[in-house]
Design goal:
The complex is a heterodimer of chains A (271) and B (294). In chain A, helix 1 crosses helix 12. Chain A has 13 helices and 8 strands. In chain A, 41% of the residues lie in helices and 16% in strands. Chain A is globular and about 60 Å long. In chain A, strand 3 (75-76) and strand 4 (83-86) form a beta hairpin. In chain B, the strands form 3 sheets. In chain B, strands 5-14-13-11-9-7 form a 6-stranded mixed β-sheet. A 6-stranded mixed β-sheet of chain B has the order 6-8-10-12-15-16, with no helix packed on it. A 4-stranded parallel β-sheet of chain B has the order 1-2-3-4, with helices on one face. Chain B has helices at residues 27-38, 66-75, 88-96, 128-159, and strands at residues 18-21, 48-53, 78-84, 100-102, 163-164, 186-189, 198-201, 205-208, 217-220, 224-230, 233-236, 246-251, 255-258, 261-264, 278-283, 286-291. The chains are: A alpha/beta (271), B alpha/beta (294). The A-B interface holds A 150, 153-154, 156-158, 160-161, 200-203 and B 191-197, 210-211, 213-216, 231. Chain A: Interacts with MinC and FtsZ. Chain A: Residues 2-150 form the AAA domain. Chain A: Belongs to the ParA family. MinD subfamily.
């Protein structure tokens, strides 16, 4: 049975799209047939991060309006064979995303794919609501700062009360906490909330911690999901997240403590 | 040929009407209290039919002057239209004044004896009905009261640590509460209360087993018990019950309020309460917060 996973946060700029790109790539790299949908109609970004912006001809709104078939709008990822992207429209607004239309698309996708990853826009308005409404599981992307934690708390409340699963009285949406842009040095200095601070407030299972890294920005600009980076903490952390999501329970949470650089590393100045 | 519809049909209907319970035969006192209670809410009744319940004064010798009472009530928008209960003498006097007689008081099968001496009646003349109105009114006013907190907070805070919600101040409009009248039921919440969520235990106490996060709001007409950190707002005794209390195993609240008297923690939680299980209750006009164990 195909699973619908929403990547959401409430707050903007915390790494939803970066996570959607890397998470869906990671699922596909493990052989799962995966599709990632950009719900940020009007501010589409996912195609940029995935490096397929020049191949976007049709988008999700065209499919909702029955102008084209779903197949015509799906873009095959350049890095993974099993991954497809359904881009958002840049010229429309979020009201064009109807719940009925989205449900129809998801049901059609469920016939072909194992995992459907929904990249939610920021906020709690209709776009974000539509993205989360049909979710089976949710990745709650949170930065170690109070406003991000507060907004994630709000999103969790909405998931528990207004998602389709909640409305229909089914099992609740399975929630996973993903902390991104975590900088152990600044946590130690008391400038950032710690892992335990965040968990104490949100109280949902932790699926991973992505360390703060300059390489994420470079990867985004290059149109390559961060999970494909060589020798990168971020890529390894995302692979761990996918592993835990697939049920590998014995993966320790890494990159949450300050690593002392060896003499040689310091000499070479590597990062 | 089509059948002609008859000019009328007689049917029975169950309608809800106001019932004014008369607890005294002292008409001057009754009128005075009625006037105090409803003068300010002129449009509330808007010519609604009102039934007079005489059960409580059935054993009294005196018979109220119904025609005088009727015109007085009409001035306040209440159209007295019948009586329930009462002695034979009282009922025939009511009928002479044009009031209907409810012969079978279905919702009051036993006639209560008059429990109260006429002069020293401490309750307002009408008992259960104004309370009903107080309920609905406070529920309807809640969002407004919340907004008022923000507007009036600063000004009142400077006067003392404690303040009252405007519109919930003491006075004749305050509904009267019997101890224990709202604590018979309770509502249980076992999931975290998230920011933006509001939980209202209407006419009940509220028990919360999970964290109450900042930006959330708990409201209960009775007590509030939180066996987890309280970081949001907790409003107990929301309909004016001054006996309501708030208990929490860890106080980090944004605001706590009992029966309209509230406290905010602008300068953080006081040293002696920090990290401890505490309770909050009203001591006269003061909202007191104490550790559960010293």
């Amino acid at each position: 049975m195909a699973k619908v996973i929403v990547v959401t946060s409430g707050k903007g700029g915390v790494g939803k799209t970066t996570t959607s790109a890397s998470f869906s790539s990671g699922l596909a790299l493990r052989g799962n047939r995966t599709v990632v949908i950009d719900f940020d109609v009007g501010l589409r970004n996912l195609d940029l991060i995935m490096g397929c912006e020049r191949r976007v001809v049709y988008d999700i709104i065209n499919v909702i309006n029955n102008e084209i078939s779903l197949k015509q709008a799906l873009i095959k990822d350049k890095n993974c064979d099993n991954l497809y992207i359904l881009p958002a429209s840049q010229t429309r607004d979020k009201d064009a995303l109807s719940l009925d239309g989205v449900e129809r698309i998801l049901n059609e996708l469920k016939e072909t794919f194992d995992f459907i990853v929904c990249d939610s826009p920021a906020g709690i308005e209709s776009g974000a609501f539509t993205a989360m409404y049909f979710a089976d599981e949710a990745l709650i992307v949170t930065n170690p700062e109070v406003s991000s934690v507060r907004d994630s708390d709000r999103i969790l409340g909405i998931l528990a009360a207004k998602s389709k699963r909640a409305v229909d009285g089914l099992d609740p949406v399975k929630e996973h906490l993903l902390i991104t842009r975590y900088d152990p040095k600044r946590v130690e200095a008391g400038e950032m909330l710690s892992l335990t601070d965040i968990q104490e407030i949100l109280r949902i299972p932790l699926i991973g911690v992505i360390p703060e890294s300059e390489s994420v920005l470079q990867a985004s600009n290059a149109g390559t999901p961060a999970i494909h980076l060589e020798k990168s903490n971020v890529a390894e952390a995302y692979r761990d997240v996918v592993g835990r999501f697939m049920g590998e329970e014995n993966l320790p949470i890494r990159f949450t403590t300050v690593e002392k650089k060896s003499f040689l590393q310091r000499l070479l100045g590597g990062r | 040929m089509a059948r002609v519809e008859p000019a009328f049909k007689l049917k029975t209907a169950n309608l809800s009407v106001f019932v004014l319970h008369i607890n005294t035969t002292d008409m001057a006192q009754l009128k005075q209290e009625l006037d105090e209670r409803y003068r300010k809410t002129q449009g509330f009744f808007s010519n609604s039919p009102v039934v007079l319940d005489l059960s409580a004064i059935a054993t009294c010798e005196a018979t109220p002057d119904f025609s005088d009472l009727l015109s007085f009530m009409l001035d306040h928008g209440m159209r007295a239209s019948g009586v329930i209960g009462g002695s034979d003498k009282q009922r025939s006097a009511a009928a002479r004044s044009g009031l209907g007689l409810f012969t079978d008081p279905a919702f009051r099968s036993t006639v209560k004896p008059a429990p109260l001496p006429i002069a020293s009646n401490e309750n307002p003349a009408q008992e259960s009905e104004p309370r009903k109105e107080g309920h609905s009114k406070s529920a309807a006013e809640k969002p407004v009261a919340d907004k008022k907190i923000v507007a009036d907070k600063k000004e009142e805070e400077t006067q003392s640590g404690n303040s009252h919600f405007p519109g919930q101040s003491t006075g004749p409009a305050q509904p009267v509460f019997e101890p224990g009248s709202v604590s018979s039921t309770s509502m249980l919440i076992d999931k975290p209360v998230r920011t933006g969520q509001r939980i209202y235990a209407k006419g009940a106490s509220l028990v919360v087993l999970a964290a109450v996060n900042a930006g959330s709001e708990l409201i209960a007409d009775g007590d509030i018990h939180i066996y987890a950190p309280l970081r949001g707002r907790a409003i107990a005794g929301a309909n004016g019950n001054e006996k309501a209390r708030i208990f929490t195993s860890l106080l980090e609240a944004e605001l706590i309020s009992i029966a309209g008297c509230f406290k905010v923690f602008e300068n953080g939680i006081p040293e002696n309460l920090r990290g401890k299980p505490v309770q909050a209750f009203l001591d006269g006009p003061n909202l007191v917060i104490r550790p559960l164990q010293d």
